[in-house]
């Protein structure tokens, strides 16, 4: 017998080793796929919440992707992946069933999310008016919100489109308190002279996008009243439905408690935050207690829980009913009805609806004897909110509310926390200490979970919020809200004075705590706009860390660490330019101060520039008072050095005309020219002419000189319906020529002033060479 026939047959592993390729691609891939399959098989129900995450990711992808072709490609690609996972036929039918199921389900959820938000945007999106307009407008008041602390009233009015289009639009008109007409209530027909503006786009990259919010809310314009509204037809009896009830309840509360105490009590009772002063609201925000002012999980849970306990105790007093009806089911029904009434009364905002959905699911789980604290229940609540309001996914309210509840569920569903809080035969001081430690751990988890969200949306986050909430949350749920409810009930018999005193005292303690915490050094952390990439890393890492239960969850620490490192390297932009060209800020030229071109009376403009730059805005310096700038009444010149190069910025600050020859010469010597008006073609700087014509197309700008990069608002908008680029000057002239003869206003000449020695920027024109700049 030949020698080779005496050798044993190589094993499967041996044959693989004999025929091993230089790089075992298929074997390694099969091993990885097998490991994923085993992990998914062992994960069980932990896989379910990821479908809600995928659904939300699909919605977010629609907002991030710039155009229709990419939206369609994303949806079609996800559907093809799902189809491939469903119809694929491996060698053995049972091979990788969990992986195929997961791929198909996630891909379908991604496609469904993107398709839903695209569909809703097309169905309910409301284009804004094309340009500012002033006139007398007649319409129906849809809602009225009194902002007592701000001394103004907000009216949502349905009017005819002032542009002549055959449509009815909703506009928000701010009426100063001195011009208010109390009869202009919900349901009244009014006529008001006002100036209306299109919904505002972000002032600078990273700023708040009100135009996007208005698009989904159906608001086509905002503006301010120039005269008191005239009531043409009074509101119907009953005050306009639920809105009228809400307003009357708020008025009743503020009549019992004055100042911010009444404003906070009204916020708890009806969701109306208009009575809270700016200083108190800032203290609540900086101390990490601002979530108490927005009716959400804490308030809904307190109402539902109180009604549930009262119902089950009262119903238990009736033996006949207790023997024939499951009292937990009846009490759960009473709690759900109370939560629904409270949600409608407070305006049915997204956090409230989310909280109601979660509370109803918890009540259902309690009635059925199931675990009430579950990630699956939270995922179902998230699906409900996203199906009704998919646009809320990219908003701060949705992210903050779900982030907080997710942190609570993750902490209290962990085995260590369950063992720590397990019932033991021990005295009440030890039990109270355990509850206190549990509350502290929960508060810290919430702060850590919400800090990236707060930094992304508001560029600020509180540091001591966990400690403040240890006192504030029990105070609100155990004293303030019950006392407020008792006071409202006793007011039926005009006997609520003692309860109102308790309510006011507890709110004063809450405000004192907020101001104390906010005044501590380092209470607020400010950061520049972080961008979408590090924020996505924080979200991905946090979700991975929370939603999985096995040791694989620790992989979530990796994106969190990368995001934290990214955050540590953030620097504010070198220059910020608002979309109208009026506001220019230099956040980095002076330590702790922001140098600005103009002193503005607009708190919104100042605060927006400061927040995007990661500053508090309280310390600012005018450019004309900074030693590094050269200014005359018309222009300022600033030279910034970065990466061994000088960047020269020329900014218009006056409204008078200048000699075209001097302006053209000055433009040639600088890199960037910024103006809030249209500059002539002869002005040609080396890099960018950011005049009104350019800014109309790009929106606000931010300059990163180290990378020689310019970021525009337009880059973040794409083809979404709320971003409308104004017509070009050629189109405007063509339209104007059809309506009326063209004319030009010549500005009066002004005396010349001396040019600086370097002759770098122009001055006002003398009468001999007066030539006006082209202006809008």
Structural class: alpha+beta
Query: What number of domains?
Result: 5
| C-alpha termini separation | 103 Å
Largest sheet, described in full? 6 strands, mixed
Q: Averaged pLDDT, please?
A: 81
Number of helices: 25
Query: What is the number of E strands?
Result: 19
Uncertain runs are 1-24, 728-761, 763-776
The gyration radius over C-alpha positions equals 31 Å
Task: Describe the strand arrangement of the main beta sheet, using strand numbers.
Answer: 12-11-10-9-18-19
Helix content: 40-55%
Percentage of residues in DSSP E strands: 5-15%
Please tell me what the overall shape is.
globular
Question: How is this structure best described in words?
Answer:
- The structure is a single chain.
- By secondary structure, the chain is an alpha+beta fold.
- It has five domains: 25-124, no CATH class; 133-240, Beta Barrel (OB fold (Dihydrolipoamide Acetyltransferase, E2P)), CATH 2.40.50; 246-526, no CATH class; 532-568, no CATH class; 575-769, no CATH class.
- The chain is built from 25 helices and 19 strands.
- The chain has a six-stranded mixed sheet, with no helix packed on it.
């Amino acid at each position: 017998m030949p020698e080779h026939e005496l050798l044993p047959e190589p094993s499967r592993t041996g044959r693989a080793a004999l025929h091993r390729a230089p790089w075992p691609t298929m074997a390694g891939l099969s091993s990885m796929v097998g490991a994923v399959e085993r992990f998914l098989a062992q994960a069980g129900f932990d896989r379910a919440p990821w479908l809600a995450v995928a659904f939300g990711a699909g919605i977010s992808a629609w907002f991030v992707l710039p155009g229709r072709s990419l939206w369609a490609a994303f949806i079609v690609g996800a559907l093809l992946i799902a189809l491939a996972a469903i119809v694929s036929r491996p060698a053995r039918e049972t091979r990788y069933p969990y992986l195929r199921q997961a791929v198909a389900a996630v891909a379908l959820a991604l496609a469904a999310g993107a398709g839903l938000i695209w569909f809703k945007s097309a169905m309910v999106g409301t284009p804004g008016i094309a340009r500012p307009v002033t006139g007398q407008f007649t319409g129906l008041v849809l809602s009225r919100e009194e902002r007592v602390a701000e001394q103004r009233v907000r009216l949502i009015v349905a009017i005819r489109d002032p542009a002549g289009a055959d449509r009815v639009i909703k506009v928000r008109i701010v009426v100063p308190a001195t011009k208010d007409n109390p009869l202009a209530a919900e349901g009244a027909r009014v006529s008001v002279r006002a100036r209306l503006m299109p919904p505002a786009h972000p002032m600078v990259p990273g700023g708040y996008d009100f135009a996007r919010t208005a698009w989904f809310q159906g608001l086509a314009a905002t503006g301010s009243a120039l005269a008191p509204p005239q009531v043409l037809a009074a509101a119907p009896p009953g005050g306009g439905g639920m809105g009228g009830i809400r307003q009357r309840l708020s008025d009743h509360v503020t009549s019992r408690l004055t100042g911010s105490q009444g404003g906070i009590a009204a916020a708890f009772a009806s969701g109306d935050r208009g009575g809270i002063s700016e200083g108190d609201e800032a203290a609540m925000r900086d101390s990490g207690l601002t979530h108490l002012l927005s009716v959400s999980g804490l308030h809904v849970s307190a109402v539902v829980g109180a009604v549930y306990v009262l119902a089950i105790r009262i119903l238990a007093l009736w033996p006949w009913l207790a023997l024939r009806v499951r009292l937990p089911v009846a009490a759960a029904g009473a709690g759900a009805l109370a939560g629904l009434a409270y949600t409608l009364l407070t305006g049915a905002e997204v956090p409230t609806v989310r909280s109601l959905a979660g509370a109803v699911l918890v009540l259902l789980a309690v009635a059925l004897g199931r675990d009430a604290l579950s990630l699956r229940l939270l995922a179902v609540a998230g699906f409900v909110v996203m199906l009704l309001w998919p646009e809320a996914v990219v908003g701060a309210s949705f992210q903050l509310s779900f982030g907080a509840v997710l942190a609570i569920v993750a902490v209290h569903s962990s085995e260590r926390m369950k063992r720590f809080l397990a019932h033991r035969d021990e005295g009440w001081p030890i039990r109270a200490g355990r509850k206190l430690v549990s509350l502290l751990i929960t508060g810290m988890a919430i702060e850590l979970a919400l800090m990236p969200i707060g930094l992304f949306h508001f560029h600020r986050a509180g540091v001591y919020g966990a400690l403040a909430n240890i006192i504030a949350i029990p105070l609100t749920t155990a004293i303030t809200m019950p006392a407020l409810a008792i006071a409202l009930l006793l007011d039926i018999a005009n006997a609520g004075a003692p309860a109102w005193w308790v309510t006011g005292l507890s709110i004063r303690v809450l405000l004192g705590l907020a101001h104390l915490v906010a005044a501590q050094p380092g209470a607020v952390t400010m950061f520049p706009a972080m961008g979408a990439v590090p924020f996505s890393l924080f979200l991905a890492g946090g979700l991975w860390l929370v939603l999985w239960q096995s040791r694989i969850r620790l992989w979530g620490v990796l994106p969190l660490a990368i995001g934290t490192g990214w955050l540590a390297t953030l620097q504010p932009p070198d220059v910020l330019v608002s979309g109208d060209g009026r506001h220019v800020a230099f956040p980095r030229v002076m330590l702790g101060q922001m140098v600005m071109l103009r002193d503005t009376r607009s708190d919104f403009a100042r605060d927006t520039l400061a927040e995007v730059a990661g500053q508090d805005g309280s310390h600012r310096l005018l450019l004309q008072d900074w030693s590094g700038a050269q200014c005359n009444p018309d222009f300022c010149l600033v030279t910034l050095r970065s990466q061994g190069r000088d960047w020269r910025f020329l900014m218009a600050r006056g409204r008078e005309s200048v000699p075209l020859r001097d302006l053209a010469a000055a433009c040639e010597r600088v890199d960037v020219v910024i103006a809030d008006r249209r500059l002539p073609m002869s002005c040609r700087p080396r890099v960018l002419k950011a005049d009104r014509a350019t800014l109309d197309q790009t929106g606000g700008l931010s300059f990163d000189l180290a990378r020689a990069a310019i970021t525009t608002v337009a880059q973040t908008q794409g083809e979404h319906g709320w971003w409308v680029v104004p017509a070009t000057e050629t189109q405007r002239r063509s339209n104007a020529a059809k309506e009326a003869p063209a004319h030009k206003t010549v500005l009066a000449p002004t005396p010349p002033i001396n040019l600086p020695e370097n002759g770098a920027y122009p001055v006002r024109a003398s009468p001999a060479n007066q030539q006006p700049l082209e202006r809008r």
